[in-house]
Amino acid sequence: MTIDPGRYGIWRRANGLGPELAQEVERLGFGAIWIGGSPPADLAVAESLLAATDHLVVATGIVNMWSTPADDVAPSYHRLAERFPDRFLLGVGVGHPEHTGEYTKPYATVVEYLDRLDALDVPVAGRALAALGPKVLALAAERTAGAHPYLTTPEHTRRARATLGPDALLAPEHKVVLDDDADRARALGRPAVQTPYLGLRNYVTNLKRLGWTDADIENGGSDALVDALVAHGSPEVVAARLTEHLDAGADHVCAQVLTPDGADVVPDLRRLAGALRLG
After folding, report:
1. Which of 39, 56, 59, 243 has the most CB atoms at less than 10 Å from its CB?
2. Are 266 and 253 spatial neighbours (Cβ–Cβ below 8 Å)?
């Protein structure tokens, strides 16, 4: 079993995805779509994207372990893996304590969930784990195909690769705004960073581990922090920033392209694909 998402993909919430967009993403040369926003266990969104395309990899980024029992998602995984061999990656994660009343012993919960996926014959090579800190990154390397870190920087990618070792998949997400005006770009990017992530313990802990301070995190995030987490500028500048993740050890980087509310994302995807020379 070999799932190859390519070097570049896109990350987008399920309510912003559909078959026509998946077809365009594939035509542009991106290797994968990551479905954000805790898609439900039936994986119907993933199935619709896979059915509309020929070779695009579809991954979940991520199925939430608290709200989606392994026993519910495993049959859906097997359905997709049989229908679309080597094209579906089940990304799972433990979510955030602020959003989950039962959030106790999260590491133990992750281990138990992976144990249950083992028992349900979901292969190690067919699943990935949301991971930020060293302990969960090491678990991702041991028990899954690899790690899907969210809200990170190339420096985190460098550290993550050192923890994962040379063989595990490393597929970070990075937000981007294709706009040369820094003030406009930050105005669009800051809310996507601030709400909810700068109020969530696991992300704040990770940012502080990378050297960011309370002053950077407070009041919606400093300009420096927003610039680190949201690449902005011309398509070429943004493409170079994404490529920094590959240079730091990532196998694949998925861009979350931010646009003003209601704006069509396809024009920006086309511009970014051109800068990445995907055609």
Report:
1. 59
2. no
Q: What is the dihedral of CA 230, 228, 204, 173, to 10 degrees?
A: 50
Please, which residues bridge with residue 173 across strands?
254
Peptide bond into 196 cis (omega under 30): yes
Distance CA 108, CA 106 (A): 5
Domains (range + CATH), the chain: 8-276 (3.20.20.30)
Q: What does R_g of the chain's alpha carbons equal in angstroms?
A: 18
The most distant pair of C-alpha atoms in the chain lies apart, rounded to whole Å, by 52
Distance CA 98, CA 95 (A): 9
pLDDT tens string 35-54:
998 999 999 999 999 999 99
Residues near 32 by beta carbon (within 8 Å), at least 6 away in sequence: 5, 6, 9, 10, 56, 57, 58, 59, 89, 252, 254
Instruction: Examine residue 217 and say whether the peptide bond preceding it is cis (omega within 30 degrees of 0).
Output: no
> What pLDDT, in 10s, does the model give residues 204-226?
999 999 999 999 999 999 999 99
The pLDDT of 185-210, averaged and rounded, is 96
Q: Is 228 exposed, middle or buried (0-12, 13-18, 19+ CB in 10 A)?
A: buried
> How far is 65 from 75, CA to CA, in rounded Å?
15
Report CA-CA distances (Å) from 218 to 151, 176, 188, 196, 221: 16, 21, 17, 13, 5
